[in-house]
Design goal:
Elements (H helix, E strand, L loop, with lengths): L4 E5 L14 H10 L4 E6 L6 H13 L3 E7 L3 H4 L10 H21 L3 E4 L15 H21 L3 E4 L15 H11 L4 E6 H7 L3 H8 L3 E6 L14 H11 L4 E4 L8 H27 L2
Parallel strand pairs: 1-2, 1-8, 2-3, 4-5, 5-6, 6-7, 7-8
Helix pairs in contact: 4-5, 5-6, 8-9, 9-10
The structure holds manganese (II) ion.
Length: 293
């Protein structure tokens, strides 16, 4: 059984006062020493100088850390502005597409293979959004097609992250199953989906079902438990998750994405990977035993 690869979404460390742009070596060393294979850097091509990105990518690589993915900032709470790929305001939708294209350019520059896109309204409304769902879908599909074609021309992959009804458009692409349907409709080979366990636990039949259904398009995973805390702190059955990832032959990264990350940076990083690796070991052993029969 192949070992899984783990990464850390660097933005989540902000709750501990750790800022990669201020103290890159310190943050990256902590991640490396905790046993991770990579980091996910947030894509803010208009706010952070390319020179700074290159420096940080260089420090990471010199430590043997890969850049697993660029994290797109799509929700207003995260981006500090609206980046809505399904907006009915054409200028706003074009603005969001422009951001995605800059993410592609940044990925090329830093030699990162994949980044993610989400469908987040400027202001989420639950339980019903005021734009008809077919319109939301049509707008997003058009945006995703344009984005993935641009990315394909540059050799970059794009992963759709479905987000739960409270953070995305309630009723549109909240589940992984829906996201696979949207990706199939767009029909570009470099467009896939990712599974964030927190969102999938709310919206899909189960996290393992989501992995199984995403199979042919699964590019990335965001790692958290059902309550968005460290794996082991909620009720997701991670043993089944690991079996399923082995079953579908997942080769991407699991990027630690708990919000708000707690209780302290050291515990957050070491507990999460330690818990997962222990279960991985048990699943590998289980497989070995079953093969002896
Ligand atoms: Mn996520």
């Amino acid at each position: 059984m192949a070992q899984l690869k783990y990464s850390v979404i660097i933005d989540a460390l902000a709750t501990f006062g750790l800022d990669i742009w201020e103290q890159p070596s310190e943050v990256l060393e902590l991640v490396k020493d905790s046993g991770y294979d990579g980091v996910d850097l947030t894509a803010e091509p208009d706010r952070i100088e390319i020179k700074r990105y290159r420096e940080i990518a260089e420090i990471a690589r010199s430590m043997g850390l890969k850049i697993a993915a660029l994290l797109g900032a799509w929700a207003t709470w995260h981006a500090g502005e609206a980046r809505d790929l399904a907006s009915t305001d054409e200028a706003a939708r074009r603005y969001a597409i422009g951001y995605a294209q800059k993410c592609t350019d940044l990925a090329v520059d830093l030699n990162v293979s994949v980044y993610e896109i989400c469908c987040c309204p400027a202001e989420p409304k639950y339980p019903v959004h005021d734009v008809p769902l077919p319109t939301v879908r049509q707008n997003f599909v058009e945006s995703a097609r344009e984005i993935s074609r641009y990315a394909a021309d540059h050799g970059v992959r794009v992963a759709i992250e479905p987000v739960n009804r409270f953070e995305g458009y309630a009723g549109f692409m909240n589940s992984v199953v829906d996201a696979v349907g949207v990706a199939d409709e767009v029909g570009e080979d470099n467009l896939g989906v990712m599974v964030d366990f927190f969102h999938a636990n709310i919206e899909d039949v189960s996290v393992t079902d989501a992995i199984r259904r995403a199979k042919h398009r699964l590019m990335l995973i965001h790692l958290a438990d059902s309550n968005r805390q460290m794996p082991g702190m909620g009720h997701i059955d991670f043993t089944s998750v690991i079996r399923e990832l082995d079953e579908v032959g997942f080769e991407g990264y699991l990027s630690l994405d708990c919000l708000p990350a707690r209780p302290d940076a050291q515990t957050y990083l070491t507990h999460s990977i330690g818990y997962m690796k222990q279960l991985e070991e048990a699943v590998a052993l289980e497989k070995r035993l079953s093969e002896m029969n």
